[in-house]
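Hey,

The postdoc asked me to send both predictions to you directly instead of through the lab channel. I've kept everything plain text so nothing gets mangled by the mail client. Protein one:
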Amino acid sequence: MKFLKNANSWSLFSNESLDIRTELPSKNYTIRFNELAGQYFLEETEPFNIPSKIYGKTQQYCDRIIRTFNKSGRDAQVGALLEGTKGSGKTLLAKLVAVRSGLPTIIVNSPFTGEKFMRTLQEIDQPAVIIFDEFEKLYDDDQQEQILTMFDGVYSLQNKIIIVTCNDRFAVREFFHNRPSRLRYSIHYSGLDESFIREYCEDSLHDKNYIESIVSYSMMCADFNFDMLQVLVDELNSYGGKFEDIVEILNVKSFSNTADIWDVEIIVPKEHAKEIILTQKTFKGDPVRYLSSFGNIEISYSVKYEDDEEDYFEFNLNPTDIKKLDRSSEVIVFGTKHENVSIGLTMKKRVNSILV
């Protein structure tokens, strides 16, 4: 039996249970608070499971974060804000950094603030990874401001990699954005890109004839994530059949009633035309999600000729007319034919258009 003195208190430990270390082993820990003792402590938790193959840019991002930390010296604090929808890859990147760094990882999943909490983390003086998962759900606006000193104030954490994940970037206070001295990296997940989807399907999908359908469908979902892709592939592998029937029953649909405004531009080569007038110059909502819900977008335009005559035309844009979709710059390019005329149409979302 051993006796451990803390101030005026003595605790009894068996020889087998007492294991005093000078450093934390490279494991995962959740920070807890003992109400009776009034102290924070670390509780060892399960190790992270990492898939055998990593898709997309996750490995690239992981390597960059760890390399920056390693070259920055002992006093470094390297932070990363990972934002995007559930299942998009944020948590996988956080786990991969923890595992590949070989450092002990401390997970904060309760809204702890205050001097004692921040001093507890500060007193862990060895290199470590600290993960705040779903930050905006843990901390409200006031609590986010209270914890700010952990990033660049009195309680700044040296020799730590700090990873903050969030689902809604607008619920994270403004002083966490565009401040690389606090959080050096900011990675936004807005859905899987085409190369990711194709690579995963080549590895996991039995019938490769479905690949084009999956890619086309992903373009109609602004937030098509890895969770959706995995289940869709598994369903196709298990049951096959018509792609439309599989999608109809699965929980992989995406709908939107946003107030975003998209500006519309059209290119219609018309011989001897003096002016091409697009009737609908803006579109309200997300065009791709609209297509996934209603199947087409009606477009109309008129052509004024040099002899002052005017023709009026109507046609529908379909999901198959999407030629380019860039979610990072919020630009959608359509290409189609109507009455043997090649038509090009571009939609670009206005900045902060949701406030319009």
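Protein two:
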Amino acid sequence: MLNADLALTRPFLKWPGGKFRLIPHLHQYFPERTHFIEPFVGAGAVFMNHEAEHFHLNDFNPDLIYCHEMVKKHPKEYIAKAKRYFKDTYNSENRYYQCRKQFNESKDPALRSALFLYLNRHGFNGLCRYNVSGEYNVPFGRYVKPYFSDKEIMFFNEKSKTAKFYQMDFAQFFEKMLKKLPPKDCVFYCDPPYAPLSKTSNFTSYAGNLFGKDQQLILSEYAERAQRLGACVIISNHDTPFTREIYRKAKIIPLEVQRVISCKGDNRKLVRELIAIYE
């Protein structure tokens, strides 16, 4: 359930496709269950603004999950380490690419997690993207003064005391949750990389891997299986003939969402999305 008495809190990371603006709309479809489960947690906007006894939060991206783990376990140390990169001297193109190179070459998870926040806030549009070699390759964003999200970090830390983080493929995660927990006590919220809006568009890269038609179909099959076992599964995606077909056994809630559709922040249009509810 959504705590209506509290203002919504933004995640400490920027995250394209995040569900912060849709939270009030989404929450009306979440049943009250003991376990709230996200196979694609991203920055955690939904988790941060939801109430449940236990949270199980997964993502395929190891940098993202280690960042969340650091905030959960060592918030003050994390803030101290990350804040140094938000000085004006680090807000330049040359310094950004030096830090990006350091991030890609480092094997130190603590350093990588601090640089991950720096790259996220200073990089273009808050994108998180890797090349085929696994190197972070988002270009410099040219922002006047990137925001250091220390208040949001501390909120995330407090909220994550009832959360457990996982880093695995979404199918493995579904298997684990369905074996570990009583399905009737579970609600899964899935915000996968979206299917393309048209046949000429490409499927999305997900932490360096293609999230294509097969993965979309597998997710819908897991939703049907979890539903049969007694769980509730809710999926967000684009509203297309393809998603209508693979979610044909779900209740479909159509909606229109305003979204930036180019590199220009003022170029927005309404995009058709849907919520598929398996309950």
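Summary for protein two, as requested: The mean pLDDT is 91.

Thanks,
C.
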